[in-house]
């Protein structure tokens, strides 16, 4: 993903009913802005606590509202109310339901048929979300950024050419998506580096504690290159899946025995008990007669590399399986399939998948899930423990204030 020029648009949770009155009155506008600075300092640029200047005001003919700009430390920033879409593309109330349906991959032509506009309008709205910092928008404070991650690549195509969506997840949120042109170490390192860049915009000292991977060598090398001190954990589930896919029907009885023993290993309470159970499973198989290679080889590999699996016991909360990323990538797979993969270029492909990822992170979950988490309605809200606004789309836009980036702009206007 190309790094955008610094975003100088601050999205603030103004109330639409009294906005047009307050925006024209400098004192009322400053009072409302001061309240938001005190309540949500993370939405504003560094240095605003030392004061700011009301710069100018202009009228949007497109949406018939006034927009103000302020000056902070000599730099100009636009104040956009949260009920307005970026680039003055529309009002949130008019597009929120349509973008919610994109969580379920309703096609753009169908949104156009139901909600009006044309298909390209809805396409561009979703693409515009992808320009924001995925980590900085989803994670609203340094303490909330997950230290235990999962990483994998989703196979896809751009105009028929094979590509890979390097995906990083944590806290049940998608924190990184970038397109790699091949599955080699260099390409994957470049793709996962996008996550590193965006995470370290939030916290320059950030380094994940653990990363769970499926065992692909170039994925592991990429993470070791980017974060030398991060511990890599091999996915136990992939060993089971490899055996299941090759032997469940052909060697039904033996597979059932091996599967039961494998999950007995997985459920071991301590690191020593896990290693001992894996060793006993391996010894038991060696004593059996005519054990097929489809079962024996994966267990031998598990036994040989047991430290790559057991090291997870040293880190409470670390991901021992790829279950989290597999669940999220199933949704990604449905999204890619319904769109018949990517049709543009590398940049548009990344904007597409990043926009979809933010919609996934912020759009409301099933009501039963919301009830389970005491009213927190999306993965991002659960991760952060709060929301800025009851409207999920306004919550997303507010979270994306300054594009989700926290660095000072380089060149004053």
UniProtKB/TrEMBL annotation:
<protein>
    <recommendedName>
        <fullName>Transposase</fullName>
    </recommendedName>
</protein>
<feature type="transmembrane region" description="Helical">
    <location>
        <begin position="222"/>
        <end position="241"/>
    </location>
</feature>
<keyword id="KW-0812">Transmembrane</keyword>
<keyword id="KW-1133">Transmembrane helix</keyword>
<keyword id="KW-0472">Membrane</keyword>
């Amino acid at each position: 993903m190309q790094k955008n020029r610094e975003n100088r648009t601050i999205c603030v949770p103004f109330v639409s009913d009294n906005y047009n009155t307050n925006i024209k009155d400098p004192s009322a506008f400053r009072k409302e802005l001061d309240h938001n600075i005190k309540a949500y300092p993370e939405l504003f640029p560094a240095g605003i606590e030392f004061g700011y200047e009301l710069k100018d005001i202009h009228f949007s003919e497109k949406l018939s509202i006034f927009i103000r700009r302020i000056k902070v430390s000599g730099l100009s920033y636009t104040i956009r109310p949260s009920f307005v879409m970026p680039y003055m593309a529309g009002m949130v109330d008019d597009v929120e339901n349509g973008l919610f349906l994109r969580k379920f991959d309703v096609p753009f032509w169908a949104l156009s048929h139901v909600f009006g506009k044309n298909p390209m309008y809805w396409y561009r709205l979703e693409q515009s979300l992808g320009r924001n910092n995925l980590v900085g928008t989803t994670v609203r404070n340094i303490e909330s950024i997950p230290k235990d991650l999962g990483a994998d690549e989703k196979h896809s195509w751009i105009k028929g050419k094979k590509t890979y969506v390097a995906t990083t997840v944590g806290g049940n949120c998608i924190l990184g998506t970038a397109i790699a042109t091949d599955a080699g170490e260099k390409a994957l390192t470049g793709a996962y580096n996008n996550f590193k860049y965006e995470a370290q915009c939030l916290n320059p000292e950030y380094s994940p504690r653990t990363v769970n991977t499926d065992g692909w060598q170039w994925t592991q090398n990429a993470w070791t290159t980017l974060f030398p001190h991060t511990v890599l954990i091999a996915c136990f589930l992939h060993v089971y899946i490899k055996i299941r896919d090759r032997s469940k029907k052909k060697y039904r009885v033996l597979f059932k025995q091996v599967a039961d023993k494998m999950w007995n290993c997985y459920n071991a309470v301590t690191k020593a008990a896990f290693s001992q159970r894996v060793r006993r499973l391996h010894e038991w198989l060696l004593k059996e007669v005519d054990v097929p290679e489809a079962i024996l080889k994966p267990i031998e590999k598990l036994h040989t590399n047991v430290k790559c699996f057991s090291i997870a016991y040293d880190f409470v909360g670390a991901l021992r399986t790829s279950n989290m990323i597999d669940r999220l990538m199933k949704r990604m797979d449905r999204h890619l399939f319904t769109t018949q993969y990517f049709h543009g270029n590398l940049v548009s492909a990344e904007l597409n998948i990043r926009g979809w990822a933010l919609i996934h992170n912020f759009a409301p979950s099933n009501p039963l899930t919301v009830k389970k988490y005491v009213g927190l309605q999306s993965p991002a809200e659960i991760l952060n423990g709060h929301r800025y606004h009851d409207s999920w789309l306004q919550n997303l836009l507010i979270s994306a204030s300054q594009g989700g980036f926290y660095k000072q702009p380089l060149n004053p206007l």
